[in-house]
Design goal:
With 295 residues, this protein is of the alpha/beta class. Helix content is 16%, strand content 23%. α2 packs parallel to α3. The mean pLDDT is 90. Bound molecules: fe (ii) ion.
């Protein structure tokens, strides 16, 4: 009875109770103007999710200088066009994206509590993607957004020259950090690393190559959290304390002279259609305002 009420709350109320998170991140050099970065992730869109679609559509009013989409945008073969239409004017702004495994593989029925005893990286027994991930990527790339799946490049946003490196999703072993490896350019105004899954083996390499800010999704912030305790699991190698929000990476005080980027993990906008509830973990998008204060 209590469980049924909690599920009803999580699926009807909290799943549609969108939150805009805001953080200031001190990663720019002295004297730089603020840079507004909108981070979206894990929409897992199915065509009927009108509240989610209209909330995404409202985010352009934040007037971000750059939009970063860290993947798992779709969960249905006919979700690409609604997703692109919801982005709407955001596509006219500078943007970058990577895929998550759910952009490639349609969701399969599974016990939503399976995350509690193992991670889902072995759930994709299928090897041939059945979702229109290329159409999704083509739509964002046609608008000028940078495809950062195992790619490195330069993006101009406001007056900033941003070096961007990204990897495809490690959850299905498509990440090829070696394709983007190498020291970042100290002459760039910002060095931005993006990925779907915040897997330590990639985070370590982004940090070693000198990236200032790392953005990821995938965890859903735990999706089902315990109030006062937080996420039970992260569904990847990152620790529970950093299942969502803004932190330094690696944690702890760091060795003298060690480069420790900022890491923002989005709790995401949606849920798998087969686990359609969130608890103590509202769906979210994040506006990161980058300001001076390197270190
Ligand atoms: Fe996801």
């Amino acid at each position: 009875m209590l469980g049924g009420a909690a599920f009803a709350y999580g699926s009807v109320v909290e799943r549609n109770w969108f939150a805009l998170r805001r953080y200031e991140v001190p990663v720019l050099r002295d004297g730089a103007a603020p840079l507004r970065v909108l981070h979206i992730s894990d929409a897992h869109l199915t065509p009927g999710r009108h509240r989610l679609l209209s909330w995404i559509r409202s985010l352009d009013a934040l007037e971000p200088d750059l939009v970063v989409n860290t993947g798992d945008s779709i969960a249905h073969p006919r979700a690409v066009q609604p997703f692109l239409e919801a982005l709407g004017p955001l596509l006219d702004r500078p943007g970058v994206f990577v895929y998550g495994s759910n952009d490639l593989y349609s969701p399969a029925p599974k016990n939503p509590l399976r995350y509690l005893w193992r991670d889902s990286s072995r759930d994709n027994g299928r090897h041939v993607p059945d979702l229109p991930w290329a159409e999704l990527g083509d739509g964002m790339a046609a608008a000028g957004w940078m495809d950062a799946n195992n790619k490195r490049g330069r993006v101009k946003a406001a007056d900033f020259d941003i070096e961007v490196g990204g990897v495809h999703d490690s959850h299905t072993k498509r990440d090829r950090y070696q394709d983007i490896a190498g020291p970042t350019d100290p002459a760039a105004d910002l060095r931005l690393g993006i990925m779907h899954t915040p897997e330590p083996r990639n985070l370590d390499r982004f940090a070693a190559d000198g990236y200032d800010l790392l953005l990821a999704g995938h965890t859903h912030g735990g999706q089902v959290c315990v109030p006062g305790y937080g996420a039970l699991v992260t569904n990847c190698g990152i620790d529970r304390e950093r299942a969502s929000g803004l932190h330094r990476y690696p944690a702890g005080p760091g060795a003298p002279g060690e480069h420790r980027p900022w890491l923002h993990v989005s709790a995401g906008l949606g849920t798998s259609p087969w686990a359609p509830a969130r608890f103590a973990c509202r769906p979210e998008a994040t506006l990161l305002t980058l300001v001076p204060g390197i270190g």
